[in-house]
Amino acid sequence: MxxxxxxxxxxxxxxxxxEPGLLIIEARDRESRDCQLEHATELLKNSATDCGILVTRHxxxxxxxxxxxxxxxxxxxxxDLL
Length: 82
Description:
This protein is an alpha+beta fold.
C-alpha cells in the first residue's frame, strides 16, 4: 500500500492517505492527535458531496477518518474499537 504523507512539518505524528477518501492518523501525543483529527476532517469535508465522515479509533494513537455513505451528509460520526 502506497501512502502519501500529507502532514505539515510542524505536526508531531503522521497523517497519510491510504486510499481516496480514507486518511490514517498516527499521533504521538494528545495535542498532535487533536490537531491531526481536525486537519483530517477538514480535508475530507472538502471532498464530501453526499456523505458524512466516520472517524474510527483503532488504538490509543491510531485512527482512521473516511468518507462514509452510512453517515448522513454534514455529520461526523465516531467509532471506538477499543
